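Researcher: I'd like a structural prediction for the single chain below. Treat it as a standalone chain; there are no partners to consider.
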Amino acid sequence: QIADALGVDSIVNYTPKVDLFEQYANQFAASLSTAWKNSLHSAIEM
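Model: Treating it as a single chain, here is the predicted structure.
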């Protein structure tokens, strides 16, 4: 019913934006994780 109210087209058009956001979020998490590991290694070496 919600799909009918919004219109299926709008949902289909919106989906790629969600996927893109998820992709950016995953990339951000990965880079954050890498940075954290690098700083951890640096702290251990000191």
